Amino acid sequence: MSETVRITTLEGPDAFDCYIARPAGTAKSAIIVIQEIFGVNAGIRRKCDKLAEEGYLALAPDLFWRLEPAVELDPDIEPEFETALKLMGKFNQDQGIRDIEATIHYARTLASTGKVGAVGYCLGGRLAYITAARTDADATVGYYGVGIDELLREKHAIAHPLMLHIPTEDGFVDKDTQKAMHEGLDDHPKVTLHDYEGLDHGFATEFGKRRDEKAAELADQRTAEFFAQHLS
């Protein structure tokens, strides 16, 4: 079962939409699904629905609500891709993290274990890293996060498990950035990095040209095992 709810910001009284997919039975734990630059589109909703099928309460907050509420874009359509890049340029990531934190607080009231994780893609992969550093999320996963080398100064604050999926031929994350990520995080006791040789950005998207089925299944299996370990 799925629905859209309103979640109040940490500051109040403003509120934003959040897509929720609920499991058939009692939700064992909750997972926040952090959008790409394309909004809470069909692919992100499908990520939530699949997590619900696995028994989780899955929530995808609309992080672009201050710019264009309920925007849904298709990365395979060039004008929509350009619109997404423009929204990304205007997006306040610090505010976005606060909205993710508000969603975590909301989710804790609904999950039977009280545990809440987060998983993000693209922009969401970057925000997943920041979520691990700035919130009390119990476990966090980032797929092809951009600009994480700029955030390594926050790694000391990562107190709960974090997994990052890194395609080695990512057109938005060059080799120097990947090297910096490994040098900065390989020895962190809470962080696990997985490289995907020859893969490009967006390989685990649910729909569209970017998906690589074999690699997506491998990454998603690793993510599933990670959440089963840390959110049970």
Provide a short characterization of the protein structure.
With 232 residues, this protein is an alpha/beta fold. The chain has helices spanning 42-53, 78-90, 93-108, 123-134, 175-185, 213-230, and strands spanning 2-8, 15-21, 30-34, 57-61, 116-121, 139-143, 162-167, 191-196.
Structural commentary:
The chain has 232 residues and is α/β, with parallel strands linked by helices. The chain contains six helices and eight strands, in the order E-E-E-H-E-H-H-E-H-E-E-H-E-H. The chain has helices at 42-53, 78-90, 93-108, 123-134, 175-185, 213-230, and strands at 2-8, 15-21, 30-34, 57-61, 116-121, 139-143, 162-167, 191-196. The chain has an eight-stranded mixed beta sheet, with helices on both faces. Helix 5 links the parallel strand 7 (162-167) and strand 8. The longest helix has 18 residues, at 213-230. The two termini are 22 Å apart.
Architecture blueprint of SSEs:
Blueprint: E1 2-8, E2 15-21, E3 30-34, H1 42-53, E4 57-61, H2 78-90, H3 93-108, E5 116-121, H4 123-134, E6 139-143, E7 162-167, H5 175-185, E8 191-196, H6 213-230
Parallel strand pairs: 3-4, 3-5, 5-6, 6-7, 7-8
Antiparallel strand pairs: 1-2, 2-4
Give the key terms.
8 strands, 232 residues, 35% helix, alpha/beta, 20% strand
Alpha-beta classification: alpha/beta
Helix content: 25-40%
Instruction: Count the E strands.
Output: 8
CA-based gyration radius = 16 Å
Report the total helices: 6
**Strand numbers in spatial order across the main sheet:** 1-2-4-3-5-6-7-8
- Gap from first CA to last CA: 22 Å
State the major sheet. Answer: 8 strands, mixed
Order of helices and strands: EEEHEHHEHEEHEH
Instruction: Give the strand content.
Output: 15-25%
Q: Any idea what the shape is?
A: globular
